[in-house]
Every structure is written in structure tokens, then in C-alpha cells.
Design a protein that fits this description.
Chain lengths: 306, 274, 306, 274
């Protein structure tokens, strides 16, 4: 018997709990030669802002030990071009489409959400209050429960689409921020976005990224992501989306057991475009081996002695 | 001409000059469809260090042997590890990626300018141009035909880095060499050869260049002054290689463009050098 | 000409800027067969508490991608046994000895510092307000500027030894905590301690560490450590001690350029006991190649375009 | 008998049973001074994944050939990578580490109980005991001498994992085998053989055991009931291997003790099994 991998999260029905993470899968079509998009649980777009943005100067990425830093800087086509040019292509795929939203002001978030609200084919919005690469790009919004709640509360008012709050790990108390966004009306909570990091070229005495600092992703951050998922999943009622260093079925299972209802794969796509396909297969196999009929049964079943 | 992800078998991986390796991979689909200037994105090892793939130009293809060649220089951890991989092992390859050189519709004099390891994609280009000429695929008036020519200007640190000269000659290219230390050919930068070539240049002339950024900047300048069409092959740090991460941008007159899908070959006049 | 690697930090004179980090070099003697301790800039002991502590149950360590998690739990012999049994051995080495101090209450910190104050051979104290593995073990003290300042201020009163505040990276705003400890009398600031993390065995459905969570160290965290050193070094006047994922001379140089006056090596010692010797050699070589007469010249000379 | 860090040359690294490898290393100092039950701590590769060293018991030494052997099972990433390292390459080794088996002052019947890959250190021990007996190094009254004996109880999943039996026999040990699937010897756990052996056991008898935790627990119980001195060789996840990180502790009657320096061999009665 084939296990049932489908899940419902924040009112969105997904074929399976594996989604492509924002910023790592473009606008969906870039990987179309290599990945059967229709087999994915869903995909999250690159962050969309009100106006088009050029992004940071290069170099924008650099490898670190078991990870990478990026400072893309919210480069995107802007919400109107997104709706006109990108959404029609995305809509053709038979998979959930979640649009990642960023802004420099609360008003900008609200306006982007308002424009996306009417757009056909969008299954949900992920509100990025966690981008570390733009000073006015969300990082500050996600560092404090009040502001985080404000962004979610205001965007909540202008859309009936499922809202997912995406949190930054660069905080003292992730739980208070998660709770604040839940109370403000988030239907789910995604974590983690990248950790702030930097690296230096000792020959030139300059930072390797033109932007000086960037966001750390990849296997290096998996332990940090897991502990945050564990804490937040134990503290909120809405579902949690686990993100950070997931490259294998085993990695995904760690997040599901720890309390994430679904997972997103970011850097893993760069390392191996087959990554998400292998993860879906790995989950299926695990369920089969353990006699699990439905993947959602294992969510949060981590056994912790007390 | 779609991109594939395949396990390429290492047919050989040998040091052909100090710290320069020639890697032959069994990759039928890539060998079949690749164009000069395109590249492959290789996963060096299965563990999470090094994590990201590494991009390498396609140096040669032999579709009839399902073979793709890479010419690479050991410059860091990834290329070091790659140089230790053995025949018979497999490498996870993405390719062919990127937009290669645009082959001009009308023939003429093709000047290829290679700096250091920048020679890698230009051999594939030279071979393609020369084969096309041999086939008479270009329709040119008779009197112009004698002016069709591939001139290969090759710059390197010293003589031991000048690799496929005899092969190029045998294909019918004109080859000139410059070395930093004067151990072979002209002593000085390869752009000296280009400047000299400009004096002899003919009407329908095209420049194609690959090499370090400083060299490309100068080539672009020379071509600009002479109003000669020029294509340059760029490098940038890459994560995805397929246009999804927006990581590999270069500044152009039409804003930041992605080297991996909008390039790696760009019209020289488009690129804004810092 | 041999470059001068010596540095003065917080009134302590060090032969060179390379120290062994707390908890990774035992009480100094464990590595004596393998490392010429007298060549080190200095060493920091395992955290010392008032009473002896057994520490956490095993497993206490687990490898992660380019890093490791530890949950040792402040296992130590207690301050009195440390003074009686361990210090006499440490005192024999011709290197700076810094004692790492931890406690469950401010009163405990104060009492440990008071007892260490009289002890011969101690060059400085590192006040660990950052251990993530014991609920009452410092983590909370380091998460908030007021409490951090309180610990430093109170311990400052009972000793004239140089005091180094060791900070946790698991905070929203490291600069505010660094500044608070500086104002409270810290002579230097060490960062970073470990990031909080966890990892799961998907077969047993249990955390791999008995303590559930642990502290992440090693190359994986280097980018995070660097950015915190950069921020803090730019914001305080006291010297900064750079820690986190340093395994090579190049790594150490990244920290020095970014603003650390000295560095500590932790996990690197496990990977390669020769690590610190190689780093010292690497610094020497770099200075020679670049014609740098004194290592301290390069501290904070990172070139950042603005 | 101090610990050294040396680059050991890989003399050979061969699969001797399914997923079990025998690694021979050129390590003169370690070969010279190692005692049975001690271990080496190996760095598998130069990159940061895998990061930490991996501990392996010393399986044999040949000081005259400067050789140290390791018998290891591929169970994860580190051991997989180790199995791919080739002859001629070097491995960074720390050793010899830990407190090995305490060889009793008075001879008698030595019962060695190995479960699975736990056989690795016991071969070194058997060889050492038998050599010492052969040398007549133990001063025993004549009538006791005939009772001196090494009994090697070997447990494994199935027959192909039973490796050095003939060699043990040739040295003069008594060997008994138990397999999980009954493909050789007794069908069942090796502890069955120990229980049986207890009925025939003689006055001055010692047990030495290495294997999975469940087996060691049972061996400790049997030894405790019979009041026979018993030493067991434990495993724990290790970071430093030299006593500095306090990571590798095991619960004992005198609190947590470090497996790497207080062990890996402990008196069975000391250890508190969960
Ligand atoms: C489209 C393209 C085609 C290329 N073709 C070739 C080729 O045919 N032969 C060849 O030898 N090299 C080629 N390169 C460069 C090659 O990708 C890098 O040398 C390689 O990735 C370095 O990896 P490393 O781990 O050894 O070096 P690292 O240890 O990662 O870095 C060492 C040095 O290499 C540079 N570098 C690292 N990554 C890249 C990158 N992605 N692009 C450019 N520079 C980088 C760094 O700036 C650094 O100075 C190409 C690059 C691109 C983008
Ligand atoms: C003192 C000592 C002596 C040992 N002697 C031998 C020997 O002679 N032959 C042999 O095959 N193995 C021996 N081991 C076990 C060996 O160290 C582990 O099998 C090895 O480290 C696993 O590495 P890995 O990367 O392949 O596995 P990982 O991918 O790290 O993990 C796979 C499995 O191995 C276990 N494991 C991982 N690290 C350790 C560790 N440090 N100690 C114990 N288990 C671990 C994990 O629990 C996990 O189930 C010994 C261990 C110790 C502590
Ligand atoms: C190149 C790159 C671009 C990213 N862009 C975005 C973005 O636009 N919006 C966002 O919310 N997260 C962005 N992220 C963060 C990822 O979605 C993800 O949260 C993070 O990378 C951790 O997951 P990973 O370790 O699987 O990569 C980006 C990450 C990378 C590597
Ligand atoms: C096993 C282990 C034990 C540690 N114990 C302590 C401790 O007692 N006190 C302390 O301040 N830091 C302790 N640390 C943190 C280190 O001193 C250091 O801050 C951290 O490991 C980051 O550096 P690294 O990446 O070089 O290991 C410990 C780290 C490890 C790995
Ligand atoms: S490498 Fe990702 S867009 Fe070019
Ligand atoms: S492994 Fe570090 S104390 Fe044993």
C-alpha cells in the first residue's frame, strides 16, 4: 500500500509535504527541464516587492563550510510584472504556488498583498519578515514581536489567502515572535530564514560578498533550524513549515518528527536538482518500512524523555 | 537542447600542464547538444563539503564517442578534490548550460583571444568555426573566401601552459602566442597580439575572448575602438547554474544579468566593467 | 625578520594571539603529549562552578555537517578542587591561563570569582554568560543586556583580575549586550559561544543528544561568528576575542582583520591537535609575506566600501 | 608510552567480509607501544565534512613491520569514506589512546567474548595472552599450568563474518562460534556459549568482552553472578579522544567516566547499564 503523503496546511492542500523554498527556485520555470514540478508539494516564489528591484552588486554568493552565504538583495521583477508575466506560467503547473512577499515598509507589504489577493492561481502568501540582506527588507520586522505582529495583522486585513509568517532565526526568543504572528492571524509559520554571516578574503582584506554580510543556508544551519522548529511547534497551534539544510529524506524526517507539518528545500536544489524528488521518495519509503499510512501521523512524534 | 542531470563516468582525468587537468567524461546527451561557450555544472563529491557545484566550460565534445572534455586549473578546494577523482568513478553533471557564442551568419576573419585557462571554451569554438568553414557551410562570395580565417591568439604564463597549438594548426588556424615570461612567442600580454592584429584586420572580422577580467576589459576596449563585433565569455560565482538563484549576476547596460543563463557569453559592449 | 606576534589584551600579555577555547582543552594537561603548550598564546579552562558538577548524561556529543553539537553540561571539579588540584599543574606552563567561570546564580558567579581571585597563576577570568546547555547555566544571563551587565558588574567588584565577558550568539542584538558588559567593567569581550542546535535519530525517533539540545560549534558557525565580531568590534572600545570555527591560519586571519585582537580555537583541537601550532605558523607566514612587523597592526583593517 | 599524532601510510585497506574492512597502517611508534584494548583516532579526510575523527580499536600490531591493523565495519559516512581510501595515501592518526585490558598477574583460564565487530580488539588481546603463555612469563605452579587456556567465544550474524578462526586455533586458543542465523556453530547469541562455558569454568578465570551494549550488559551479569573478574571494552561517541572534551562519558559506580582515557576498558562491575 502506497502511503498517503498529502497534507493540509493553512487551508492549502498539498500532494506531499515537500516545497521549494523562496529564492532558490526562481519563478518555478528555471528548473522545469530538470524537475517534474507537478510532483512537488508546492513551490514558494522569490520574494516579491512592490517595485522591481535590481538587488545587490556581485559577488552575491559564496560557499562556506557545509553552507553558503547569499546576498541577493530581494532582486525581483516587482508585483505587477510578477502577476502579468510570471504567474500565468506558474499557474500551469499542477502544484501549490505560494508567493513570498517582502517590503521596506508595512504599507508596502500591505500593497503587495492587496495586489496579489486578486490574482488567480496563488494558493497562499508567505510573508517574509526575515530577509537579512536588505536593511529595510524585513529583517527588522521579524526581530521584534510587536512589529512582526503588525506586518501580519495589517496584511491579514487585505487578503483572504492563507498567510504564512516566515521568521528569522537571528533572534533571542523565536517563540515570542512566533506567538505574536499567530495571534495576529498567521495561518502557519515558516522557519528558518538564513542566519546572518560573513566571510573574508584575507588576500584582498575585503569581505567576499559585495554586500559585506549575507544569509547563511545549507546543511551547516540544520541543527539551528531544528531546535527552532521544536520550540515553536511546541508553543503555537498553527502548523509549522520546517526549513534549513534539508538535503535528504532523513533530513526532512528530522523536521517532521520534530514538529514541522511540511518542509521547504532551498540550498539543496542547487546541490542536487533531484533533491526534492529524492526526499519525496525517501518519505514514501520510510512510511512503507514503518507501516505508516499517512505522513501527517508522524508530525511531532519525537520522543523526548522528561 | 534541454538541460540534463546525468552521472558522467570519468574516462580520464590527467594533468596536462602544471596544475592544469584534462577531464574526459562520458556524457552522451551533453556531447550531442552542447554549443561552444556553454558549460557544465559538476558536483565534486557526495558530502556537504564542498557543498556547491563548480562550473566548467565545455572544452571539446566528441558526440560519436559520447565524450565531453573539461580543461581545468586547480585553484582551490573544489578543483583540488576534482583532480583526485579517478577514472571509472562517476560525477554528477548538469548541462549543457548557458548561452554560448553566437556564430556569425556571415563569415570573415575570426579572432579568438584566450588568456590562461580561458582557452578552455575557445578550442571548442575554434573547432566548430573551422569545421563549418571546411564544410563550406558559409555562403560567401568567392573573393571573400580567401579572407576567411581563424586567428587564435593565445596568452599564458609561460611555454608549458601553451597546450593545443599543434592541433589548432593542423585544423588550419593561424596561431600566435604570448607569454608573460617570454618563454614562447611574444613577451607580454595577449592583448598586445590583438592590437597588432588590428592593423592587419579585414572587413568582416569578429572577436571572441575568454580569460581573466582585466584582459577581457582590454579586449572589449580594443574591439569598441575598432567597432568590431566582440563576444566575451564571463565567469561569476554560481550556486544553481540554471537562473534560479540570481546569484551570478554581472553588470550590463541593461542592468544585472545572470551569467549562467543570460551568458556566460555576452556582447563585449554590453558589459560594464568596474 | 621574524614578525612580532605578541599582543596585550585586557592587561594580559600573550606571546601570540592564539588561545585554546574553554571546554575543548580540558585543564591544559590532556593535550600535553601532543601540543607544546608553552608555544600557545594562552589557554582557557573548562567552565568552573562553585560545586563540582557531574554534567549531562551521554551521549553528549554528535557530529553535524561541518560542525558538532555538545551538551557537556558544565561538568567540572568545582572551584576548590580546581584551585587545589588543577591550577598547580597549569601554573607550570609558560603560557597565559584564563579561567572560564559559570554559575546558576549571580551569587555563585561572584563566589567563584572571589575564590579564584587569590589564586596564583591565573592571568584572567572569562565570565561565561553564554552556556546553552544548562538551564540555569548562564545562557539566560547572556540573553539580556541588564542581566549580562549585572553579572559582570558584581564579579568586577570582587576581583582585580582582567575580566572577559563571553557572549552567546543566540540573541537578536549582540551589540547591546556587548556594550552593556563593557560599561559594567569587562576588560574584553569573547564571542561567540555555541549556537543552540539539535539533531534527531529518525530510526529511534529520539534526539541524538540525551540533553535534547546542544551547542553547535566548528566550521559551520564561522560565518555567524565573524559577523558578530565585526559588529561588536565596531561598537566597543575594549578588545574582542574571536571564536568560532577557526581551524587554519586563514580562518584566524579572517577574525583578526574583522576586528578580533586575539582568537580562540575550540573544535579545531579535536579535529587536529596540531591546529593551533599550524595557526601560529600561518600567522607568522602571512606577516612575513606581507611585510607586517607586528600582528596587532592588522587587527580590524578589513576594507569595506561604503 | 606517550600519545603521538602521525601521518600513517595506508599499506592496504581491503574488504575481508561483507562491509568489514581490514586496514593496515604504517605507524611505527603506535605499533611499538600499543596495548590490547587501546585505540587510534583517525581523521578520515582533510575537509570539514566529516569533521571529527573516528575511533577504532587496534586489531593487531606488528612492531617489527611498523604496522598497525584496524578491523572496521562500514556503518555510516565516515567509515564509508574510509573504505574508499587507497593504499599509498596517508591518514592522520592519534594513538595509542586509552587504557587497554589489564592483563592479570596470575594466569588461568581467559575467556574472550566477542560480539560482531567487537572482535577487533580481542584478537590483539588473544595474541598477547597466548604469546605471554608461550613465553612462560606467568609464574604458575605446575599443576595449574595445564589449566591455563584462552577460550575465544565468537558471535556474529552469520558464517561469513567469522574471520580469524584458523589463526586463533593455530596460536593454541580454543574457539567456539555462535551465529544469529545458525550458519555456523551454535545458533543464538554468543552469551549462550558463555553461560555454557561457566559450567566448565575453572578456579582462576577471567572474562574479557567487547561487542554491542546489550551483549556486554549480559556478559557483565553472568560474570557478576559467578563472581568472575570481567573487563569490558566500551564505545561512546568521541570528539577529542584524549580526555579534554568530557564528551565520551559512561555511567559508572564512581560517576561519569571518560571512555577515551578512563577506558575504553572498564571492570564490568563498575559500569551502570541503563
Ligand atoms: C561559466 C564558467 C565557466 C568556467 N570554466 C572554467 C574552465 O573551463 N576551466 C577552469 O579551470 N575554470 C573554469 N571556471 C572557473 C571555475 O569554476 C572555478 O575555478 C572553480 O569553481 C573554483 O573552485 P575551487 O573550489 O577550486 O575554488 P575555491 O576554493 O572555491 O576558490 C578559489 C578561487 O576560485 C574562484 N572561484 C570560486 N568559484 C568560482 C566560480 N564559480 N566562478 C569563478 N571563480 C570562482 C574564487 O574567486 C577563488 O579565488 C569557470 C567558471 C564559470 C562561471
Ligand atoms: C574506543 C572505540 C573503539 C572502536 N573500535 C572500533 C573497531 O575496532 N571497529 C569498528 O568498526 N568500529 C569501532 N568503533 C566504532 C566506530 O568508531 C564507529 O563505527 C564509527 O565512528 C562510525 O563512524 P561513521 O561516520 O561511519 O558513522 P556515523 O555516520 O557517524 O554514524 C553511524 C552509526 O555509528 C555510530 N557511531 C558514530 N560514531 C561513533 C563513535 N564514536 N563511537 C561509537 N559509535 C559511533 C552511531 O551511533 C551511528 O549509529 C569504536 C568506537 C570506539 C569508541
Ligand atoms: C540564494 C537564496 C535566496 C533566497 N531568497 C529568499 C527570499 O527571497 N525570500 C525568503 O523568504 N527567503 C529567501 N531565502 C531563504 C530560503 O528560502 C531558506 O529559508 C534558507 O535558505 C534556508 O533553507 P536552506 O538551508 O534549505 O537553503 C533565500 C535563500 C537563498 C540561498
Ligand atoms: C565540547 C565543548 C565544550 C565546551 N565547553 C565550554 C565551557 O565550558 N565554557 C565556555 O565558555 N565555552 C565552552 N565551549 C564553547 C567553546 O569555548 C567555543 O566558544 C565554541 O565551541 C566555538 O568555537 P569553535 O567553533 O572553535 O569550537 C565548549 C565547546 C565545546 C565544543
Ligand atoms: S547561478 Fe543561480 S542564477 Fe546563475
Ligand atoms: S572524547 Fe573527549 S573526553 Fe573522551
Amino acid at each position: 500500500m502506497r502511503p498517503d503523503l498529502s497534507v493540509n496546511i493553512a487551508g492549502i492542500r498539498l500532494k506531499n509535504p515537500v516545497l521549494a523554498a523562496s529564492g532558490t527556485f526562481g519563478y518555478g520555470t528555471e528548473y522545469a527541464d530538470l524537475v517534474d514540478i507537478n510532483r512537488l508539494g508546492g513551490l514558494v516564489t522569490k520574494a516579491i516587492t512592490l517595485e522591481p528591484r535590481e538587488g545587490s552588486p556581485p559577488p552575491r554568493t559564496v560557499e562556506t563550510a557545509a553552507g553558503m552565504l547569499n546576498a541577493i538583495g530581494l532582486a525581483n521583477v516587482g508585483v505587477d510584472a510578477f502577476i502579468k508575466e510570471k504567474m500565468p506560467l506558474l499557474h500551469k503547473f499542477n502544484t501549490a504556488v505560494i508567493v513570498n512577499v517582502a517590503g521596506s515598509t508595512i504599507a508596502e507589504y500591505v500593497e503587495v498583498v492587496r495586489r496579489l489577493d486578486g490574482c488567480q492561481g496563488i494558493d497562499g502568501l508567505e510573508i517574509n519578515i526575515s530577509c537579512p540582506n536588505v536593511k529595510q527588507g524585513g529583517f527588522l520586522f521579524g526581530s521584534d514581536p510587536q512589529t512582526a505582529a503588525k506586518v501580519i495583522g495589517e496584511t491579514r486585513k487585505v487578503t483572504s489567502l492563507p498567510l504564512i509568517a516566515k521568521l528569522t532565526p537571528n533572534v533571542t526568543d523565536i517563540v515570542s515572535i512566533a506567538r505574536a504572528t499567530e495571534e495576529a492571524g498567521a495561518d502557519a509559520i515558516s522557519l528558518i530564514n538564513t542566519l546572518l554571516g560573513m566571510t573574508i578574503n584575507v588576500e584582498t582584506k575585503r569581505p567576499k560578498l559585495a554586500n559585506v554580510t549575507g544569509g547563511l543556508s545549507g546543511p551547516a544551519i540544520k541543527p539551528v533550524a531544528l531546535v527552532m522548529v521544536w520550540k515553536v511547534a511546541g508553543a503555537v497551534k498553527v502548523p509549522v513549515v520546517g526549513i534549513g539544510g534539508i538535503l535528504s529524506g532523513k533530513d526532512a524526517l528530522e523536521f517532521l518528527l520534530t514538529g514541522a507539518s511540511v518542509v521547504q528545500v532551498g540550498t539543496g536544489n542547487f546541490v542536487d536538482p533531484q533533491c526534492m524528488m529524492k526526499i519525496i521518495h525517501g518519505l514514501e519509503q520510510y512510511c512503507q518500512e514503518k507501516g505508516i499510512a499517512k505522513i501527517s501521523e508522524i508530525v511531532g512524534t519525537l520522543e523526548v524523555e522528561k | 537542447m534541454s538541460v540534463v542531470q546525468k552521472q558522467g563516468k570519468i574516462l580520464s582525468n590527467l594533468e596536462v600542464a602544471p596544475s592544469i587537468f584534462l577531464l574526459n567524461l562520458g556524457l552522451p546527451q551533453v556531447a550531442e547538444t552542447a554549443q561552444p561557450g556553454q558549460f557544465v555544472h559538476l558536483r565534486i563529491g557526495p558530502l556537504s563539503d564542498p557543498l556547491l557545484r563548480r562550473p566548467f566550460s565545455i572544452h571539446r565534445t566528441k558526440p560519436e564517442e559520447a565524450k565531453v572534455s573539461i580543461l581545468y586549473q586547480v585553484v582551490g578546494r573544489g578543483t583540488k578534490l576534482l583532480s583526485q577523482r579517478c577514472s571509472g568513478e562517476k560525477l554528477d553533471c548538469l548541462g549543457p548550460l548557458g548561452r554560448g557564442f553566437a556564430i556569425p551568419k556571415v563569415a570573415g576573419q575570426f579572432i579568438l583571444v584566450a588568456g590562461g585557462i580561458g582557452i578552455a571554451p575557445l578550442i571548442f569554438l575554434a573547432e566548430t568555426l573551422l569545421r563549418k568553414m571546411g564544410n563550406g557551410k558559409w555562403e560567401v562570395e568567392k573573393e571573400k573566401r580567401k579572407k576567411m580565417e581563424v586567428v587564435f591568439l593565445m596568452g599564458a604564463a609561460s611555454t608549458e601552459y601553451i597546450l593545443p597549438e599543434s592541433e589548432l594548426l593542423s585544423w588550419g588556424a593561424a596561431v600566435e602566442v604570448a607569454t608573460d615570461d617570454g618563454s614562447k612567442g611574444h613577451r607580454g600580454p595577449v592583448t598586445d597580439l590583438l592590437t597588432r592584429q588590428m592593423d592587419r584586420s579585414v572587413a568582416s572580422c569578429h572577436i571572441f575572448a575568454c580569460g581573466p577580467e582585466g584582459m577581457l576589459k582590454e579586449v572589449a576596449q580594443i574591439a569598441g575602438q575598432q567597432k568590431i563585433p566582440c563576444q566575451i565569455c564571463l565567469e561569476q560565482r554560481m550556486a544553481c547554474g540554471v537562473g534560479a538563484c540570481l546569484g551570478c549576476v554581472v553588470k550590463t547596460r541593461s542592468g544585472y544579468r545572470r551569467v549562467c543563463v543570460d551568458g556566460p557569453v555576452f556582447p563585449a559592449g554590453e558589459v560594464i566593467f568596474e
